[in-house]
Amino acid sequence: MAGNSRQPGASVTGRALSILGAFDEKHRSLSLSDLAARADLPLATTHRLVAELVQWGALERRSSGEYVIGRRMWDLGHLSSAETGLRQVAEPFLHDLYGATLATVHLAVREGMDVVYLDRLRGNRSVPVVSKVGSHLPLYATGVGKVLLAYAPPEIQRTVLRELAPITRHTIVQPGVLRRQLRQVLDRGYAVTNEEMSLGACSIAVPIRHDEEVVAALGVVVASLKGSEQRLYGALRVAAQSIGRRL
């Protein structure tokens, strides 16, 4: 047995990775004892390794005493060849889309049960937007999220549909209604939301394809879609197709 780990043969690196691996979509904030239990490590070992991870920036300690993934992990994630390539290819088209719509523009991918925002251009109109670059939001309550959920594997869809929870009074929490919306995404090629993530904000989004596979979603957020849905869809579709061709 290596060190104090309960896992035979575990190295110091392996134990540190076990601590980082204790976090997931449902466990984004963990106490020291929870980390020890989920990583299957003694409390003293966990305390020592967590202190080193906090010092390095891989973890952050909240005022409550619980730990969350640190900013440095996100910075490293930006070095991922897939995400970096996608963002670099998409960047000029995001600016073109912003210029054509003056709306907040989002580039996002799916990570587990969440949508993760790779890039965002903030519109100059007063629309409440809760997303930030690197933030995770529910798939079922955002335009880009609904697109990615519509093309997600069936097991992901089933899990999300079992865990619908209201965020605003307009959030879709009826599985049957959401299923119909996901089918509409596949039929018409885009998804919409109406104040489902934040009041006063509506969105429309389309898939970005590479080799016939949906690899990301592109969307805009506006105060209202009335009278502009098809115009925005046209602009999004052109941008998404251009990004897909460049990938």
Automatic annotation (TrEMBL):
<dbReference type="GO" id="GO:0003700">
    <property type="term" value="F:DNA-binding transcription factor activity"/>
</dbReference>
<dbReference type="Pfam" id="PF09339">
    <property type="entry name" value="HTH_IclR"/>
</dbReference>
<dbReference type="InterPro" id="IPR005471">
    <property type="entry name" value="Tscrpt_reg_IclR_N"/>
</dbReference>
<dbReference type="InterPro" id="IPR029016">
    <property type="entry name" value="GAF-like_dom_sf"/>
</dbReference>
<dbReference type="GO" id="GO:0045892">
    <property type="term" value="P:negative regulation of DNA-templated transcription"/>
</dbReference>
<feature type="domain" description="HTH iclR-type">
    <location>
        <begin position="10"/>
        <end position="71"/>
    </location>
</feature>
<dbReference type="GO" id="GO:0003677">
    <property type="term" value="F:DNA binding"/>
</dbReference>
<dbReference type="InterPro" id="IPR036390">
    <property type="entry name" value="WH_DNA-bd_sf"/>
</dbReference>
<keyword id="KW-0238">DNA-binding</keyword>
<keyword id="KW-0805">Transcription regulation</keyword>
<dbReference type="InterPro" id="IPR050707">
    <property type="entry name" value="HTH_MetabolicPath_Reg"/>
</dbReference>
<keyword id="KW-0804">Transcription</keyword>
<dbReference type="InterPro" id="IPR014757">
    <property type="entry name" value="Tscrpt_reg_IclR_C"/>
</dbReference>
<feature type="domain" description="IclR-ED">
    <location>
        <begin position="72"/>
        <end position="247"/>
    </location>
</feature>
<dbReference type="InterPro" id="IPR036388">
    <property type="entry name" value="WH-like_DNA-bd_sf"/>
</dbReference>
<dbReference type="Pfam" id="PF01614">
    <property type="entry name" value="IclR_C"/>
</dbReference>
<protein>
    <submittedName>
        <fullName>IclR family transcriptional regulator</fullName>
    </submittedName>
</protein>
